[in-house]
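Data deposition worksheet. Section B asks for the primary sequence of the deposited chain exactly as it was used as input, without tags or linkers unless they were present during the calculation. Section C holds the resulting structure in token form. Section D is free text for depositor observations; keep each observation to a single sentence. Incomplete worksheets are returned to the depositor.
Section A, Depositor: J.P.
Section B:
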Amino acid sequence: MEDIPENLETFKEGLERIFGKGAETIEKSIIRTLHAKLGIEYKEEECSEFVECVHRAIENFKAKD
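Section C:
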């Protein structure tokens, strides 16, 4: 669990292995929750890949301060 931030691609692959097509819904939910917890706006059209969205959220959070 603690290694997930450093291994996002592996985490994404695990979700896909376990949930198949349902992984996309889980990924979107994770992204929305991450944005809400960071207090930044989520615009779904700005990124399409899970790992990219996580990195952008972190960048946006850092730029916010």
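Section D:
The chain is about 65% helix and 0% strand.
The two ends are 27 Å apart (CA to CA).
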